[in-house]
Amino acid sequence: MNVVQAIELPVSDYQDLSPEELFERTVAAKKALGDQVLMLGHNYQRDEVIVHADLRGDSLLLSKLAAERSQHPYVVFCGVHFMAETADILSRTKQTVILPDMAAGCSMADMAAIEQVDQCWEELGRVLDVENEVMPAVYVNSAAVLKAFCGEHGGITCTSSNAKAVMEWCWARREKILFFPDEHLGRNVANKMGMPREEMIVWDPFMPYGGNTKDAIRKARLILWKGHCSVHQMFQPEHVAYFKKTYPGIKVIVHPECHENVVNQADLVGSTEFIIRTVKQAEPGTSWVVGTELNLVNRLKNEEIDKQVFFLSPTVCRCATMYRIDGAHLCWCMENLAQGIVVNQISVPEDEKVLAKLALDRMMAVS
Ligand code: 13P
Ligand code: SF4
């Protein structure tokens, strides 16, 4: 009997294929795989990718789906690296998670390295009884090792949709929160909860004691890591002012990763899923300006034709890393999978997985 050994198909073979061919071949590979594969798509993904997703959503919803859908041996995650890692941490042992392009990272997640967080914890420990006074809370936009850090120190993860509930959980248990890596999400939620400015400090990982005096550290209740999203920092208060002046009655809806100067002027603030749901459910004839990633806003604009939908920034701001997942990479990983070859597997080391899951499970319990 002749046994034909499958050979990995190179991604370069896909780069010059037409969108139509990529679409048809991806559909065919998906059909051949059937229930073997579950394709998850984050709301920021390109149209050519999201069209194939079985389920789409924000990072919280996708984390929950990854945890629930244990019947599919393969999960193809169309999103960024930290999301695929989360899926791997929450998935059942026999599930294999695939990220179509390994270069799909997150610039915010890269702003906190474990060595810097360890150093911060050690410096805080010189001033405070850190294990009893400080609760570490990490935004899911972070490497698995940071989620593991939180798991190990009694801490928790959060997403943009449950950050308030998570912060309440933290303060019910410890006096202070170390919130990383997004300074803006932490501050925006604390502002909404009425926290005085004097109780928040910013931790710059490149400065001794984060750039703070020991006295300021003792007084703080919220320690905000100096990190941000390169996409959401593009939105400015003058953009909000322009739309409010030019389109009286327009509603401004933004993501909580935006600067507080933008968030404080917006009518509504929430996760990508909240933004989509709110605009979709709005009255026909209403006008909306949206401050989040461009792919999501363009899709809303095209789908909600009975409403006016604008993008908040005058410049194009796409998440360059989300954009790495294109039709070619998706087709490439699906066709390889259809012939039994796993490319780009995301596999979190087992010890990290156990600790990171503790922090994620605590979050799931409050979500
Ligand atoms: P959501 O949790 O709102 O989907 O946001 C994820 C993200 O990366 C926003 O930049
Ligand atoms: Fe990361 Fe910002 Fe892209 Fe979200 S939009 S994945 S926070 S770089």
Describe this structure in words.
Keywords: 4Fe-4S, Cytoplasm, Iron, Iron-sulfur, Metal-binding, Pyridine nucleotide biosynthesis, Transferase. This is Quinolinate synthase. This protein is of the alpha/beta class and 367 residues long. Helix content is 43%, strand content 15%. It has three domains: 11-104 and 322-348, Rossmann fold (3-Layer(aba) Sandwich); 109-229, NadA-like (Rossmann fold); 232-311, Rossmann fold, CATH 3.40.50. It is built from 16 helices and 14 strands. The chain has a five-stranded mixed beta sheet with strand order 2-1-3-4-14, sandwiched between helices. A five-stranded parallel beta sheet has the order 6-5-7-9-8, with helices on both faces. The structure holds 1,3-dihydroxyacetonephosphate (13P) and iron/sulfur cluster. 1,3-dihydroxyacetonephosphate binds at residues 43, 58-60, 141, 159-160, 229, 255, 257, 271-272.
